[in-house]
Design a protein that fits this description.
alpha/beta, FAD/NAD(P)-binding domain, Enolase-like, domain 1, 3 domains, 7-stranded mixed β-sheet, 13 helices, 31% helix, globular, binds flavin-adenine dinucleotide, binds 1,4-dihydronicotinamide adenine dinucleotide, Dihydrolipoyl dehydrogenase
Length: 475
């Protein structure tokens, strides 16, 4: 017997579970299906982000940062600890506990909002008149019917052609978050967000890390000045990043992995490592959906084709998050999920891609929103730039972390903020002020005239805004 809902959401990652909750708040009868299993085979809603992405990576970044602080920085504060050791299985167990808290939190939120959760795989069975039939397979098979379907099936790690992940020696983000010991030599292919974050974790814990990047430019999506500053800091930390390489044969060896590659200067070399993380981007999850059964249109990458409102080619079928175009970020997935639920309810929400912040949780952290200086130049837009270094910020000095800067780009005529770029301590938090400012179409002068608490890192943002008008007070 089939069960009828107003909306069925397939996938309980940040896109899906947030869409389900918002839809329930709006009065719809909602089901959410997710197939992720925890170690005991039970449900683990939260998707990539909660299980093998945002949350566990930040847990390990925190542990490894504490370790590095204790090892390198406590002494200057007059704190002695004796030999500092890392118990990797304990660090991983803590990370797993953090993940479980988040899984449980989502199950609680489903109950609180009366979202019916199904643990299993959801796929299209057939189109009905004015709706769809969705099959749930797994431990509790079910048949659901709904007028609207929101697909939020996310993405998975892309493997190198012919080099499948074994999660022992050749690791995706999943295996990289589960290592039970620090590898002596860790190779990473792809100096993108995962490569830098995971490379930072294992380097801080003592691994010799080499990151091989295909592009000749480091962090090509970031503002050049910020990327340069970050690269300088990573070089100093001993994170070895080779740019412009061409990866050839990758072979699992008796003890580890051998990666043959061509360096930017044409030299052919082989890198021997104990473990390899492949972080070269992600592919959308559409294989298990049985999209053909209803004629759901996919693009050549397997992503679901949607318009700017997340409508697919089928009436009543929507798609959000990593499974569609746009940045693969949890908060982008969430915003799209909320917007779709509200659109189904007849509201008119809008997700502005230009004000979606990017954060890389390395040390120093990197964060930005809006246009980079190179994008503005390419577009021929006249702009003014203001920068302020953390070196001149009192709170940063007290923290003992003065790397980096804040940079604000504003329109040369109107002074409207066009982009804000940061590298330095806690900029993952500082970027929120820039996002708010841009959403409200603030000028640099607006930020310059706002009272910021002293001493705080946020004063660097105010000073960068003052710098746009060449009137910094503390530099
Ligand atoms: P997902 O989170 O991938 O969730 C999709 C869910 O759908 C999964 O649970 C999957 O099992 C389920 N599913 C798929 N197919 C089916 C089916 N047919 N039936 C039932 N269930 C199905 N983003 C950030 O913004 N900040 C970060 O710090 C960050 N860190 C990251 C770190 C790593 C290591 C990785 C890999 C990613 C990180 N991301 C981060 C990206 C972020 O995880 C994704 O952008 C986000 O999870 C996308 O959400 P989603 O809901 O679209 O998909
Ligand atoms: P990415 O797109 O960030 O980086 C991939 C890198 O690999 C690029 O620099 C690319 O040039 C390089 N590359 C691709 N193919 C290559 C090859 N064959 N040889 C050498 N280099 C190659 O992808 P990544 O790091 O896998 O992360 C996937 C996505 O997950 C990110 O784009 C991001 O959206 C999300 N994410 C977000 C985080 C955050 O917000 N803090 C953290 C981690 C992931």
């Amino acid at each position: 017997m089939s069960q009828t809902f107003d909306i069925v959401v397939i996938g309980a990652g940040p896109g899906g579970y947030i869409a389900a909750i918002r839809a329930a708040q709006l009065g719809f009868k909602v089901a959410c299906i997710d197939e992720w299993k925890n170690a005991a085979g039970g449900p683990a809603p939260g998707g990539t982000c909660t299980n093998v992405g945002c949350i566990p990576s930040k847990a390990l970044l925190q542990s490894s940062e504490y370790f590095e602080h204790a090892r390198l920085h406590f002494a200057e504060h007059g704190i002695s600890t004796g030999a500092v050791r890392i118990d990797v299985p304990q660090m991983i167990a803590r990370k797993d506990a953090v993940v479980r808290q988040n899984n449980d939190g989502i199950l609680y939120l489903f109950k609180k909002n009366k979202v019916t959760f199904f643990h299993g795989r959801g796929s299209f069975a057939r189109a009905l008149e004015g709706g769809y039939e969705i099959a749930v397979s797994g431990a509790q098979p079910a048949t659901l019917q709904a007028r609207h379907v929101i697909v939020a099936t996310g993405s998975r790690a892309r493997a190198l052609p012919g080099v499948p992940f074994d999660e022992e020696r050749i690791l995706s983000n999943d295996g990289a978050l589960r290592l039970q010991a620090v590898p002596k030599r860790l190779a990473i292919i792809g100096a993108g967000v995962i490569g830098l974050e995971m490379g930072s974790v294992w380097r801080r814990l003592g691994a010799e890390v080499t990151i091989l990047e295909g592009l000749p430019t480091f962090l090509a999506a970031a503002d050049e000045q910020i990327a340069k500053e970050a690269k300088k800091a990573f070089d100093k930390q001993g994170l070895k990043i080779e740019l412009g390489v061409k990866v050839g044969e990758v072979k699992a060896t008796r003890k580890g992995v051998a990666i043959a590659y061509t360096q930017a200067n044409g030299a052919e070399v082989t890198l021997e490592a104990d473990r390899l993380i492949v972080s070269i981007g992600r592919v959308p999850n559409t294989e298990g959906l049985n999209a053909e059964a209803v004629g759901l249109k996919l693009d050549e990458r397997g992503a679901i084709v949607v318009d700017e409102q997340c409508r697919t080619n089928l009436p009543g079928v929507w798609a959000v998050g990593d499974v569609v175009r746009g940045p693969m970020l949890a908060h982008k997935a969430e915003e799209e999920g909320v917007a779709v639920a509200e659109r189904i309810a007849g509201q008119h929400p809008h997700v502005d891609f230009n004000t979606i912040p990017w954060v890389i949780y390395t040390s120093p952290e990197i964060a930005w929103v809006g246009q980079t200086e190179q994008q503005l130049k390419a577009a021929g837009r006249a702009y003014k730039a203001g920068t302020f270094p953390f070196m001149a910020n009192g709170r940063a000095r007290a923290l003992g972390d003065t790397t980096g800067l804040v940079k604000i780009l504003a329109d040369a005529v109107t002074d409207e903020i066009l982009g804000v770029h940061m590298v330095g301590p806690m900029v993952s938090e500082l970027i929120a002020e820039a996002v708010v400012a841009m959403e409200f179409k603030a000028s640099a002068e607006d930020i310059a005239r706002i009272c910021h608490a002293h001493p705080s890192l946020s004063e660097a943002t105010k000073e960068a805004a003052l710098a746009v008008d060449k009137r910094t007070l503390n530099f």
